[in-house]
Amino acid sequence: MSIAPTQRFSLLTYGLLLLLASLAFAACKKKNPHAEETVVFKPQPISPEDTIKYPNELITTLNRKNKWVDSVFRRMTPEERITQLMMIEVFSNQGPQHEEDVRMLIRRYKVGGLIFFQGGPVRQAKMTNRLQAASKIPLWIGMDAENGIGMRMDSAMQYPLPMLLGAINNDSLIYQMGAEMAFEFKRLGMHVNFAPVVDVNNNANNPVISYRAFGENKDDVSSKSLAQMLGMQDNGIIATAKHFPGHGDTEVDSHYDLPVISYGRERLDSLELHPFRHLIQSGVGGIMVGHIHLPKLDSTANLPASLSKPIVTGILKQEFGYAGLIFTDAMVMKGVTKYFKPGEAEVMALEAGNDVVERLVSVPKALEAIKAAIKQGRLSQQDIDRSCKKILAAKYWLGLHNYQPIKIENLYQDLHAPHAHEMLRRLAEGSLTLLQNKRNQIPLEDRKRRKVASLAVGGTKTTFFQKKIKEKLTTQDFFLPRRSNKKDIEKLRKELLNYDLLLISIYGPSIRPSNSLGFTPEERALVNELVRKKRCVVVLFDNPYTLNRLPDIHQATALIVGYQQLPAVQAAAAKMILGDLTPQGKLPVTVNQHFRYGDGL
Q1: What confidence tens digit (pLDDT) does each residue in 196-243 have?
Q2: How far is it, in rounded angstroms, from Cα 347 to Cα 61?
Q3: Which of 23, 94, 259, 388 has the CB geometry, 3.0–4.6 Å to 98, for a possible disulfide?
Q4: What is the total count of domains within the chain?
Q5: Residue 204 domain flag
Q6: HEC string for 390-419
Q7: How far apart are CA 328 and CA 352, in angstroms?
């Protein structure tokens, strides 16, 4: 099944840009089949004083009168208008009792929406149909799918994470990825993607954003997140920029505690707020406010931005003029629950100016606390009603006024379409970053008298990369598993030192990038020794920040960063080493004094 963009709102500039990009790419392919035309999405600059008034059809729909919205709203009780502002978490892999618990919340409390996490596409689609049938008003359904639905479920396409995308010079590919993600969302009956991440990651020690960011440069983050956002919203899915006002320069994970950002407006305006401004200007449908404490914006002790009226209402709504949907980050995170009790936290989130509270600890506690706050005058029914109507208007824009159940037939096949795999290949090939190539070691040629060892660091069996290399190069495969004993390491060391050339591929501990490679000091010492003593071609299939775990890596003869161990990336790396792919990627972050932002041969 192919994607047919609905073009819900007119963005002629970007449409023309994509057309020119595709024509340029076609012409470029005739000259060089491996070259990609550089395309950058550039919104017009705006100043902090500018306000944004309904920049597209989605934002306009959220803020104008609508007969369907009014008719649904009139039939809702005051309690149902409150619970319409709630989105609860759902898992399609936790069995019948979990589904019954969710169904009870839908029937009894009339919650407005769901957020799906782990499970599988077919199980989720069937579960969605059953839960929608139990709801008085069609549910809107979201997912944290920063790199596609494969981020959350099995048997689904997994696209690259933002750090890899940050290395790509062609933003139209990122737009296409956003369009593919929108197709998958619609095919699964989902409506809101809590993406893109627009945090500027300029802190190598950030434990929660890191590879989830496009990089450390605010303009790159703006253009690439804009491309992803437009790809989704042009095709009928609401995008959500996060985590306002910026989670990139923290060393605390807000899932486990409350990060503190000490900077004031001058620094935030010059860096962190930059991408948010540009996505607001371009009509992003949603913004998620992070659980981060900014004492120079709101000095209330231990108060996250998500619960701060000066930040949510004062800056985002009044100063920036944002008229879209405002979501809290998950209310179950320790960045909130460590300091504020369930119920009170949701009251404060609505006081602050959020429209939607998601992943609540307790729907009953939140509802009772919000009703009490209305009686006390802390909250007004008028504000509740305004957010409720905005959510109903979003459901109208999403087509939920004509709700149709998900068709299960051919679901798996539709979610693995050939054009999606082709797009993934182009993303992988466009991102590979060649950081050094001494003596033009790459491309490698098969030489009869040269002994080549292929070492998978972190591998236990022949990897996809090693298999692709063997298609053209004679190599002997070796492995350095995690937690290898000293005897095995020494035996491996002696064997490898007898080879003329070492092809070293480095893998993190899981399919997702890591903040630490997870190797022992002895394992890292072996890699460092090999790159010092031997002619080595090294490929890192992990977060570029992890290069710091190998202090001698800059002495490698050649070094490629692949960012992730996706099969498409491993295949692309093999093509580059064998001379079938021209390097195009640029490092999106500064790693250390040897490897800096923008590097790439």
Answers
A1: 999 999 888 888 889 999 999 999 999 999 999 999 999 999 999 999
A2: 27
A3: 94
A4: 2
A5: yes
A6: HHHHHHHHCCHHHCCCCCCCCHHHHCCCHH
A7: 10
